[in-house]
Amino acid sequence: MIDKKNYVFLFSIVGLLLTTIIWSQSSKDNKVDDALFSEHSEKLSKGSVVLELFTSQGCSSCPPADALLETIKDSYPDNVFVLSYHVDYWNYIGWKDPFSNQKFTVKQSAYNTKFRYRSNYTPELVVNGKEHMVGSNRADVIRAVEKYSNLQSQNVIGISNITIDGDKATFEYNVNGKIEDNTIRAVLVLNERTTEVKRGENRHRTLKNANIVVAEKYLNDVKSKGFGSIEIPNIVGKNEAITLMLLVENEKVDITGAAKVAI
């Protein structure tokens, strides 16, 4: 007969074995995912791919998409441009996303009108302004990155002579390719921020967001060479890393070229 102490010991051993198996499988899965990204990134021809994620810290379905966005950012540092637009329509749940902006909700609505999709949703990922998908669907996102990476960008844009004066960044740009009827969108992103969410659907969770859009400005009078500026908002801390992105858009709001530089 096994006494009580032996039962406790036996269950402890079984629990430890199960934990080890689960941890090992989880680690194996993560390695497979990393290998998948590496395998795909080596096959790309480096066409520009712009991924715009519409997300919110108040949405319980968004953290997996936020995490995927960060993985893609790290896996495709050269030709993939990730932007995280935080919408404001989840704020009513009880947590006001500090990065939310009503203008980003309007931007999402404009995209969905273009796509003839009935309403906004999160997490929604827009690729090169041409199609949308659920932002946490890893397989679909990888396919989209591979698809657009292997298409030649219609515009090649460069950024130079960036200067910071107080809360303003000025820059010069040059564009190759068709520029008639095109616009340039200047976007300032905060590279990353970790937030403790105290209310709403993600209450008691610590969320990490990457490439958070904190400022956006359109340059409408596009030339082959020009200059522009963008304000750096107060939400950016003194020692926080930020990146400037320039996106070329045609009259259909398709993104035809992109460039980025850390500032």
UniProtKB/TrEMBL annotation:
Pfam families to which the protein is assigned, alphabetical: DUF1223 (PF06764)
Say which species the protein is native to.
Maribacter dokdonensis
**Name of this protein:** DUF1223 domain-containing protein
For this protein, the record's InterPro entries field holds: DUF1223 (IPR010634), Thioredoxin-like_sf (IPR036249)
